[in-house]
Structures are given as C-alpha cells and as structure tokens.
Amino acid sequence: MSKTQVLFLCTGNSCRSQMAEGWARLLHRDKIDVYSAGIEAHGMNPNAVKVMAEAGVDISGQSSKLASSLEDIPLDVVITVCGHADENCPGFLGKARVVHVGFDDPPKLAKEAASEEEALDHYRRVRDEIRDFVTNDLLKTTESAS
After folding, report:
1. Of the listed 67, 82, 119, 134, which one is catalytic?
2. pTM, to two decimals
3. N or C: more exposed end of the chain, with fewer CB within 10 A?
4. Among the options 6, 7, 9, 10, which is catalytic?
5. Half-sphere exposure in the Cβ direction for 77 (13 Å, CA)
6. What is the pLDDT along the chain (146 residues), one digit of tens a residue?
7. Residue 107 burial (CB count, 10 A)
C-alpha cells in the first residue's frame, strides 16, 4: 500500500506548517509522506525550531519553500494551517482534498509579549496544539483521501 501524500500549507512556511511537518514525520512516517510549504517562503522561524527542539523534534534541517516547488508531487491531502493559506490555496493543489485546520500565529502573538519567555510560551502552546492534532486527528483526516 502506498503512503498518503500530505502537505501542510501556511502563508510563509516558517512556523506552523514546519512544526506540523516535524510532528507528522516523527509520529506517522510509516503511513504518510509529509511536506510543508507556503504561499510565500519566509525562512525558518528560529523560535519554532527552538520550541520543537525542546519537545525532542529537530526541524532545523527543514527548509522554507514555496508550494509551487511541490507541483510534481501527487498530493492526496493539503492541510491549511492558517486562514490566509486556506483562502489563497494555489490552484494546482486543487486535485488534492483541502482541509483547513487553523492554528494561532505565534509570531503575531509574540509581538505583544513582555518577555522572551512569554513570547516562547505562545510558540509552545501552538506547538502542543499542532502535536495534538497530528497525534489524534491527522490519520483520520487523511484516511478518507487515500
């Protein structure tokens, strides 16, 4: 049986989609091939890398890339993790089933933080929410697509 091809898509492919890719690789590599990409490529967010490392997941080797770089991959499911990506999902991804699972934007929340630790707490909360989705709901989301 072939693996389900899953893409996590967000605006800049720097934080939420990268965390989701890291969790999915760790927890479901035997069942899915996972990718992340963005409508734009903003580079890896260092705080996302940091809080994932705290949880034992190394995403430092991942890279921020455009969704168009994955046009040749026969995706089964595209999971948009932010509203902007959901509203602006590239047309070539239309062959895949698109599912929206929104998460708060840690960099946006961190701008209002009074300290670096408070800022990182926003990243940690979203990291854990993404982990819970990947752990509990990702395979259910992908099963009906394959």
Report:
1. 82
2. 0.94
3. N
4. 10
5. 22
6. 689 999 999 999 999 999 999 999 999 999 999 999 999 999 999 999 999 999 999 999 999 999 999 988 999 999 999 988 888 877 766 678 889 999 999 999 999 999 999 999 999 999 999 999 999 999 998 886 55
7. 17
* Backbone region of residue 2 per phi and psi (left: phi > 0; alpha: psi in -120 to 50; beta: other values): beta
Residues 6+ apart with CB under 8 A from 68: 90, 92
Choosing from 15, 39, 89, 119, which is the catalytic residue? Answer: 89
Taking every pair of Cα atoms in the chain, the longest distance, rounded to a whole number of angstroms, is 50
Domains recognised in the chain with CATH numbers: 4-140 (3.40.50.2300)
Is 15 tagged catalytic? no
Active site residue 89: yes
